[in-house]
Specification:
The structure holds 3 protein chains of 3 kinds. Chain A is mainly α. Helix content of chain A is about 70%, strand content about 0%. Chain A has helices spanning about 10-30, 50-75, 80-105, 120-140, 145-175, 195-230. Classes of the chains: A mainly alpha, B mainly alpha, C mainly alpha.
């Protein structure tokens, strides 16, 4: 058995350095760069660089988690189960951050004066449901004793949940009125939603947060794997 | 033909056990009727908007199904008949049989709840066809999800409120579309108005049914 | 229009028509346009709306930062637990 789940430390270190560089740059450019002046949003349009990448990280988490659940069902390799679990954990974290930052942003821009924090914007509600689904994933994991059954049951639930997610995140929000872009047919931004000057900060920021996700994920997988090996359960 | 016979045998067996005691069906229907009555008492005598009417209906169906369904797999695990089933039948037969059985349960649940709500609130449905379609699709999706998740829950050691916790968030798309379609049926809007909801329901049922069929093997296998 | 504070007399909780949420985008349009609140904003709102709402961005960045730091601390806790387990295991291990 390999002593580390990390196949290439060099890649890990380069990604880590890149993440630090990209996120530092995104912070500086995000606060100091030029942005178009808009009513309502004013300077808070800069939140685009920080709020939206949370959702990219969440989506990355769901995809990675589902992929490893699928591979676990095929192979029964315990490492796949650990990877699926840690990716789901981080998806939960980034989803929570996305919801809270979205609440703060909307509270002081579109809903200013109303004093409301929660507005049942479809994307917001559906993201909350997504977090409930991952909450259920962890409750299910905790309710099964045998590690092999737990892995299989959790993987099946994860894959079944992933099948319903497109409805939750793309089909339903489009049928309901929403604050978010993408209501009229395109899944994310159209060309006009994003000013050219902002792209040069937005895309690196997204890349930086995705990298941050990967670094945190790799750390947690390595730790879980060490813990599992220390338990000295009989190997399959 | 062999496969059909196997699935039918699983279904027949479940139905026979159910008819002997009528435990699941009676519990389901009483739960649904009780919940519906209590909601209406709590709301009091006042006109309820159609959106709220359809929301009540679907919440009652969903919660009744979440509380009362998924028992059959638990019963198999407890009585040890699961092993017998595993030896004698292929997983897909068991899935089809159990799905059919759940479909009968949820179907009666949906029918009775709808009838009770319409009677209690004295609602006249302008488009019964649309209502029946929405109800049918919703019931089918509900049955598929409860069958797969019921099998999952049966494998868990600590069950408690596990099935509702897993089921309710997953069925959010189904709930939103069904409520909207039901509202439109009560209001008497033309079919084309409810096109989005019906397409979403068809897509949702199709996606969950194919996923559940593929995934059931892994839950069932030992 | 729907999201602005109702006058106290109109705030009857029983049946607010906007609870039956409309399914058309047009019904929501009015909520996208900001209306300056009647009285001058108080407390938290006054701070957040200052300087072109730049403090909203600060709050968002801080929330994300707190999330990442929480993650860092949890990872540390996990390392601690592993170290303790190693300490327990080594005396038993002849090697």
């Amino acid at each position: 058995m390999a002593s580390s789940v990390l196949s290439s430390p060099t890649v890990y270190r380069s990604v880590r350095a890149l993440v630090v560089a990209l996120l530092s740059g995104a912070l500086v450019a995000g606060f100091l760069g030029q942005i178009p002046q808009l009513d309502i949003l004013e300077q808070s349009a800069r939140n685009l660089y920080f709020h939206v990448p949370m959702w990219f990280a969440l989506m990355m988490g769901t995809v990675i988690s589902a992929y490893h659940s699928f591979r676990y069902l095929q192979s029964g390799d315990r490492l796949r189960d650990i990877r699926a679990r840690e990716a789901a954990w981080l998806a939960l974290l980034f989803g929570l951050l996305g919801i809270v930052t979205g609440m703060v942003w909307a509270r002081f821009t579109w809903y200013v004066g109303s004093g409301k924090w929660w507005n049942f914007d479809p994307k917001q509600s559906m993201a909350a449901v997504l977090l409930l689904i991952y909450g259920g994933y962890f409750v299910l994991r905790d309710s099964v004793e045998d590690p092999d059954t737990r892995g299989r049951v959790a993987a099946v639930y994860n894959l079944f949940a992933v099948v319903t997610m497109p409805f939750l995140l793309y089909i339903l929000p489009r049928q309901l009125p929403s604050l978010h872009p993408g209501g009229e047919g395109s899944p994310a931004f159209t060309q006009t939603d994003l000013a050219p000057a902002m792209r040069w900060v937005f895309y690196p920021s997204v890349l930086g947060f995705l990298g941050l996700f990967w670094v945190l994920y790799t750390q947690r997988v390595r730790l879980s794997w060490i813990r599992k090996r220390l338990r000295r359960e009989p190997e399959l | 033909m062999d496969w059909l016979a196997g699935a039918w045998a699983v279904f027949r067996n479940d139905l026979r056990i159910e008819l002997r005691t009528r435990y699941a069906l009676n519990a389901l229907l009483l739960f649904a009727l009780g919940a519906l009555l209590l909601i209406l008492f709590a709301v009091g005598p006042q006109p309820i908007p159609t959106r709220v009417q359809s929301a009540f209906l679907w919440m009652v169906i969903l919660f009744a199904a979440a509380v009362g369904l998924g028992r059959s797999f638990v019963a198999e695990e407890r009585q040890g008949t699961a092993l017998l089933l595993r030896l004698n039948t292929r997983p897909s037969m068991v899935f089809a049989g159990k799905l059919l059985f759940n479909l009968v349960l949820v179907g009666s649940l949906g029918g009775v709840s709808t009838g009770a709500l319409l009677l209690l609130l004295d609602v006249s449905v302008a488009r019964p066809g649309l209502l029946a379609t929405a109800l049918g699709m919703g019931v089918l999706g509900l049955a598929v999800a409860t069958t797969l998740l019921g099998a999952l829950v049966a494998r868990a050691a600590r069950r408690g409120a596990l099935l509702p916790v897993l089921l309710l968030p997953l069925l959010t798309p189904l709930l939103v579309s069904s409520v909207s379609a039901t509202q439109k049926a009560i209001q008497g809007l033309p079919w084309t108005e409810a096109q989005d909801e019906l397409l979403t329901l068809v897509g949702f049922v199709g996606a969950t049914l194919s996923a559940a069929t593929l995934l059931f093997d892994y839950v069932w296998a030992d | 229009m729907t999201l602005h504070p109702l006058p106290a007399s109109a705030a009857a909780p029983s049946l607010r028509p906007q609870q039956a949420r409309p399914d058309t985008a047009a019904a929501y349009d009015s909520t996208w346009t900001e209306e300056s609140p009647a009285q001058s904003p108080q407390g938290l709102e006054r701070v957040m709306l200052d300087d072109g709402k730049i403090y909203v961005v600060l709050a968002v960045v801080l929330i994300i930062w707190i999330g990442v730091v929480t993650m860092l601390f949890r990872t540390d806790r996990r390392i601690d637990a592993l170290e303790r387990r190693l300490d327990q295991d080594i005396p038993e291990d002849p090697a």
